[in-house]
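Protocol step 4 of 6.
Sequence for HIT family protein (Lactobacillus bombicola) entered exactly as in the expression construct, tag removed. Do not edit the line below.
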Amino acid sequence: MDELEQDCLFCKIIRGEVPSYTIFENEDIYAFLDLSQVNPGHSLMIPKKHIVNLFDYTPNEAQKYLQYIPTIANAIKQFDSKITGMNITTNNGTSAGQVIMHSHIHFIPRFEGDGLTTATRNNEKKYTKADYQKIATQIKSNF
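Step 5 output, structure tokens:
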């Protein structure tokens, strides 16, 4: 546990200093109920190493920690036969809504007619083929 931060809420949860409702734990990750319970079963998965967000993962860390996403998603889905979908999200950085600076994945069960919406917009009319190509080319050059 030497890879944890002293004042991070999620590191405190991993160390057992702050109570939580565990749904899964192994040597790599810890998954627990989100107290906000956007929908019943809403859970978080965190690495047992302090990593700020996905931008900071090495390829090896991504393979080590993120491999559990399907396992946790399926266990949550099996908890209630009325679950028809699931939002699996992460907020990376404060401008994206990240509040706790320890990487975490949200698993939000979805039910038909639950009334939740996602904050997206369609800006397709603002872009030309040249605009799309320029953006794609610039991103591709970073690989």
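Step 6, annotate. The chain has one domain: 9-140.
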